[in-house]
Amino acid sequence: MSNIRLKQNWFDLTRRADLNCNPKETFKELVSRYNEEGRHYHTLSHIQKCLSFSGQVKDLLDKPDQVDLAIWFHDFVYDVRQVNNEEASAKVAESFCRKAGKQKIAEPVYHLIMATKHSSKKTDDNDTKFFLDIDLAILGSPATEFFRYEQHIRKEYQHVPLNVFNQARADILNQLLRNGVYHTEYFTTLLAEQAEINIRNSLRKLKF
């Protein structure tokens, strides 16, 4: 998805969802955020891939426009030195929805983004399950793409000592193996096998 198509996607979304906003100005702000210095994985490329997956499962979603809004805003605030990025991004999205005259979707979008904390708590909400799987689809990518993803994550946390980073990363990956990477049958069938291979290979490299 090129930047032109990405822009068109945003304009189409604002029209479909009947958002009372200036789509051009909001898009510029979104692009500015995702192009911030220090981002290597959590960039527009991640948003593009998430939107591509959401398009694939559109007919399986209950509220596809809400999911797409959550995709656009879920990493709006991304500071690796902070621990409240999800909350901050969710609040931005909630405020945007309210200002755009869509109070009814503000809270659902807020909760979708908050779910990207990826806690061990299970969810029964269909759209939340798909949104979480879309966010972690990279884990089931081909090995070379997964390796680039891991390199980008390390660059984002380059201020963290390697041994500390490796331990924290191993904890996250082991938790994913214990709980299962994906929540939906669609993504489990499509990506789970490769995701497990990637994660186990990563753990071996991390020596955990």
Question: Would you tell me the structural class of the helices and strands?
Answer: mainly alpha
Question: Quick one: overall form?
Answer: globular
| Low-pLDDT segments | none
Sheet of most strands: none
How many β strands by DSSP?
A: 0
Query: Mean of residue pLDDT?
Result: 96
Q: Helical region count?
A: 10
Rg from alpha-carbon coordinates: 17 Å
Tell me the count of domains: 2
Helix content: 55-70%
Strand content: under 5%
Q: Ends: how far apart?
A: 36 Å
Order of helix and strand elements from N to C terminus: HHHHHHHHHH
List keywords for this structure.
globular; 0% strand; 208 residues; 10 helices; mainly alpha; 67% helix
Give a written overview of the molecule.
- The chain has two domains: 1-120, no CATH class; 136-208, no CATH class.
- The chain has 208 residues and is mostly helical.
- The protein contains ten helices and no strands.
Map the helices and strands:
Blueprint: H1 3-16, H2 23-34, H3 44-56, H4 64-73, H5 85-99, H6 103-114, H7 126-135, H8 143-156, H9 162-179, H10 185-206
Question: What's the short story on this structure?
Answer:
The protein is mostly helical and 208 residues long.
